[in-house]
Amino acid sequence: MFNQNRIYRLFQLINYLKAKPAKSVRSIIDFLETSERTAYRYLDLLKDLGFQIEKDNRNKLFIAAGSEIDQIPFTPQEADYLKKLIVSVGKNNKLADSVLQKIQKSSEIELGADSLFKAHLAKIVEQISIAIMEGKQLLIKEYHSANSQSISDRLVEPTCFTENYDSVSACEVNTGLNKYFNIERMTGVEVLERAMEYEAKHEFYKPDIFGFQGKSMSKEIELQMSMRAYLVLKEEFPMSTAFLKLIPETGQYYFKAKVQSFKAPSRFVLGFLEEVQVVGSKEFIKYVQDVISKNL
Q1: Beta-bridge mates of residue 170
Q2: Quick one: pLDDT at residue 77?
Q3: What's this model's pTM, rounded to 2 decimal places?
Q4: How far is 138 from 249, CA to CA, in rounded Å?
């Protein structure tokens, strides 16, 4: 039977390996804060549970999409351990309620792998909160940037979280710019002893549905799309859900919203050229046409 800490570590590792990019064995050891031998034991346990752990061309590990088993069985005693573990994290965690709802009162408990608790994020959020409250600089370790397609450490002065705790607004020390940093793209964080030095530059701007920060939400995009494109948009950018609606007559989906930048929505359109139609804003239509021309 799993003990409480083992369940916690197992759930951490599943979500860590499912999140891109692939992870080195060294990073897994550091993430779990354990020995190399114990880390390999957890990897072997995942294989025994039915997860397919693969390697990329640099021998880094990841759980392949669609390789996880649909459900992991737990006895009532094991489920009780899990419930106590999740409750101990606190009510404010965004996934705790979802997992708790899936714990049933039958003799054999089953939890969907896609709903597993992302416990490692709680530790990162806690450390960021400490930096904000104590006015300390924060080192974000191995941040995976979607914009620059790079992985690097970032020295920042955090100011506040977004409403759903998906990101933190922070002033980047090297550039002096205020940016949003997605918490799931952080490998780890460290609260430094150094006090914040650039409070005068701290700003907070609400991000658009694509995560871009700016002073003016003035750019408008309007799209019609297939069901496949609609599902991808919802999955990649959950905040878009409120702006999507079905067109019953055509079976297509309609989307209209104001954004900070055309960069991310244009990338989405280019990925579905045959399934997404740009309508409405002439400015956005021209932007997409220019991007296509540059890539021909």
Answers
A1: 158, 179
A2: 53
A3: 0.42
A4: 52
Retrieve residue 247's tokens: 């067109």
Quickly count: other Cβ atoms within 10 Å of residue 56's Cβ.
11
Strand partners, 252: 247
Three-state secondary structure call for residue 277:
strand
* SS3 at position 200: helix
Residue identified by tokens 């007559």 is 249
Q: Which domains does the chain have, with CATH numbers?
A: 4-117 (1.10.10.10), 121-201 (2.30.30.140), 219-294 (no CATH)
* List of E strands, the chain: 53-55, 61-63, 71-74, 109-112, 136-145, 150-161, 167-172, 178-182, 188-195, 219-225, 244-247, 252-259, 276-279
Calpha distance 185→172 (Å, rounded): 16
pLDDT band at 52 (very low <50, low <70, confident <90, very high): confident
Cβ-based burial of 29 (10 A; exposed 0-12, middle 13-18, buried ≥19)? middle
Q: Which amino acid is at 58?
A: R
- pLDDT, one tens digit per residue, over 182-231 is 888 888 899 999 999 998 888 776 677 887 766 677 899 999 999 999 98
Count of alpha carbons within 13 angstroms of residue 204, beta-carbon side: 11
Region of 252 (left: φ > 0; alpha: ψ -120 to 50; beta: rest) is: beta
State the amino acid at position 181 in one-letter form: F
